[in-house]
Write a structure and sequence with these properties.
Length: 523
Amino acid sequence: MKKNITSFILGIAVLTSGFSQTRYVDEVFGSVDVTTDVVYGQNFSVLAGTPIPTGMAGTPIPALAFDLYEPTGDTETSRPLIIHLHTGTFAPIVHNGNPTGMRQDFATDAFCKGYAKRGYVVANLEYRLGWNPNLPTEPERAAELMKAVYRAIQDTKAAVRFFIKDFETNGNTYGIDTSRIILSGQGSGGWVALGYATVDKLAEIQLPKFLDGSGVPLIDTAVLGDWNGVGGSATLNMPNSPGYSNDVHMVCSMGGGLGDLSWLEAGDVPMAAVHGPLDAVAIYTTGNVSAGGVNVTTDISGAHDVVKKANMLGNNDAILDHYDPYTVAAKTASNALVAANATDWGGTAITETVNNVFPYITGNPGEGSPWDYWDSTFLVTQVAPAVGLTAAEGQAAHASGLMTNPNMSYGKALAYIDSTLNYFCPRIVNATMLPGNTMDLTDINSSVKVSVFPNPSNGNLVFSSNSGNIESIKFHNAVGQLTKAFNPNATVFNIEDVSLPTGIYLVEIICEGKSSVQKIIIE
């Protein structure tokens, strides 16, 4: 199946124009203030098997820090906090063979600015990197990758505790609401966010697939510390802000994976995701993981299977059944995969539509991050030398990126970033009970009362208003295209045959200058 949806998601904006702006859902601020390099902790990175303290004078390992994004001119003093985690397969940019992999990446910065313009406080987080994907055996590679993910989870929990500690002991410097903390992760950052929300038992990291050939756990908490970053060897783990809560309240994953579905249990936080069905690194359903061109470990679950289970367990009850344009687009894409008998990159058939997952069908084999954009000249001439590599290695990383994102462009990246934010933010609002929650038809239409009968319909429709004359009726398909328009100027309007293909339509109705939206199904 090959279907490009860049224009598909660009068109969705048609449906949202003209509606009132809602903080935490829409961009209500025009600009963002950024405070760079706020240090939240220190720990040990591992390079070539050697533990090296972060942020110490004379070492190449940067401090554990974040860049803070806040809406310019905001007067609110209790705002939801989003901790955003960049991509990079747990290795520094270019060293990882890719043109992305740092918190200064274009897409990472754009996601953070997009959240902040909607009214959130955003911490663009640096976490420890370092592992060796070229070890000779799968268990050795699995151990290396697991430890890298584990260290990143520890760091992210340290960052949450940093904010909680500041709130409780320093007067809430950053103006956050500690009851509304959301993790948002791209690629490997999505892995960290999902693992953070689910790993809470020793047995979960000692499953058979996480043991070496002699039955020894790949993760030894006596050495590395526990998943909260507490304990372990004093030469391998430094606890940061111990004694404070590290609770979070939602996870938004972009192309992330979960180490094992058994980690996910009833009562875990809500989860939503965007994911490319042909992602070659994190399989859309469940399968092997490869990084750096070699197989790493088995049975890692992607968005389809993770969110399906979260839905089944009831963890996502608060964020189900939206009918905003981006949700309709997601369901349309998901239905298209099933109808086409599509398979993911690992060859597993996609047989179910899953709510709270937006599958990005780009048609590019192996593509997992269509939101990425990079300047190849800057990568080759500036970034590669800055990380100790040659221009040729920078050029190779650029070429590697184009292998799965051959039509990479600024416009394409912005389209997917916009769709991701507009898909996640209503769910964040509902999951954390922010003002304006319940972005469904009953709330959208609360001020305008228009009934539509019958629905579903075979094409014959009657619109009836008790809110004054119906001024206009506009049908938009799931691609965001305007397909039909009527200007009845009456309180009752009958359409004998709307003459539209079968499918789901979002219909914008204007009465006395006020807008409402109806989801109408044509059979």
